[in-house]
Write a structure and sequence with these properties.
The protein is of the alpha/beta class. Helices cover 40% and strands 16% of the residues. Strand 4, helix 6 and strand 5 form a beta-alpha-beta unit. The chain is globular, with a radius of gyration of 16 Å.
Amino acid sequence: MVKILGICGSPRKKSAFTALEAALEAARNSGEAVETELVELRGKKISLCIHCNQCLKRQEDHCTVFTDDMTPLYEKFYQADGIIIASPVYEMNLTAQTAAFMGRFRSAWLKGIQEPEFFMHKVGAGIAVGGTRNGGQEFTMAAIQNFFLTQGITLCAGGSGMYSGPMLWNPGDGSTEMDDKTGMELVRLLGKKVAVMARIMKEAEIR
């Protein structure tokens, strides 16, 4: 059984949530033995990392300064075999919620040092949803992938015309239903691919 964690960085239950939900559903229906969980950052209180390095000095794999809504998310992240992060595009970049979540993984550096292969067999993928066809989706996707690369997590890119991953668009403020049919097809393809890759990587770890 592989575990795939979906992180939705939208402050609203709209387009990025819809896309991530579809990806996780496709993962469950991929034919692999998959358990999925979708975590919304919406409404969560996540303090900003102040880079005090207390986590490293105390040799902890989580922040030791702030106890907030981020605290239980560390274990979910560490236990997952595959992680999909979805973010809307705000000013051609990630949402503040997504950035705050990513910024709190300073402690993961120590985990990678103590267990060099810990992140090696995990798979990471991104989904970006913009308000226009060319609204900064590629910058947002790059930020998500750079986060995974920082941890040493294996990237699950898209291919098949979505080279770095599915980048959708939903007109205006996202208040309408997701109508990017091609984008949603690619999201489902990504979900299936993450499930397959996560299973392969986990089996490699067991061997």
